[in-house]
Structure formats: C-alpha cells, structure tokens
Amino acid sequence: MRSFQFHPNELLLIYYDYSSNTSKQTRAYARSVSNNINELNLSTVKLTTTLWKEIVNMLDLRPKDLLDKSNANYQAKVRGNTFTMTGWLEVLCNNPYLLKAPIAVYHDRAILCRKPTDILRLDVNSRGSFKVPPHLKPRVVN
C-alpha cells in the first residue's frame, strides 16, 4: 500500500526555495508535463519520514544523495556522521533547506531535478508506458 496517493495525472513538485532559479525554471517546465501540479514548498510544509522514504525509494537514491553537501549547515551538522536509513530520513525531515534540487513525482516515478529540464524525462518516459484505449486508436482504412 502506498503511503500517499494523488491523481494519476498530477505532478507533485517538491522544493525548498521557491525563489531559486532552479525551482522557478523547474516549475515552468512542469507545466509542459502536466496541467495538474501539486507544489510542496518544504519551507512551509513538513514531510514525514514515511513520505521521504517513499520518495527516496522512487528516486532509487540514498537520502544522503539528496543533500547539498556544499551547504554550510551540512558541513556543520551532517558531514562526517554515520546515520542509519531512519537517521538520514530524519535529517531530511528536520533540515529540508539542505535539499539540493527540486524533486518531481509523476505516474509513480520520481526524479531529482538537478537541472530544470530533468523534469521533462518524466513526461517522455511516462507516455510510452501507457496503452492507448481502443476507442482512441487511429482507424486503419485499407
């Protein structure tokens, strides 16, 4: 059972800093992937460790891979520590400003948008995975 659910055609966009260029550009590209965008600004919304675990699994990354290691707070609070999976998820929950890039979730797939155009890979790959219903297929006339 999934820990969170949303409409299949909804794109979930997770970011911390709306004013960053990457976030703004990623939001703009998101509109070309889906008309239904649900934005989660981590500066105002806190995700649970369960949601973070789901997202990390969808990304097929470690929680540590989502963090900006050049951030001074990462250097002061996180660097050099060894955490369990739960510990890393707690770091994400309690320090969302360390997120290195926006995350997009669409059709049960997720991508870390290091570049704003990374979000477009969700659209290209998702369209090929759906079958066209018979009544929408083009008719072949002999």
UniProtKB/TrEMBL annotation:
- Known InterPro entries for this protein? Arsenate_reductase-like, Thioredoxin-like_sf
Task: Please give the SUPFAM superfamilies that the UniProt record associates with this protein.
Answer: Thioredoxin-like
- Alphabetical list of Gene3D superfamilies matching this protein: Glutaredoxin
The superkingdom of the source organism is Bacteria
Q: Which family is this sequence assigned to? A: Belongs to the ArsC family.
* Name listed for the protein in its UniProt record: Glutaredoxin
Organism, per UniProt? Fulvivirga sediminis
User: What are the leading ranks of the lineage?
Assistant: Bacteria, Pseudomonadati, Bacteroidota, Cytophagia, Cytophagales
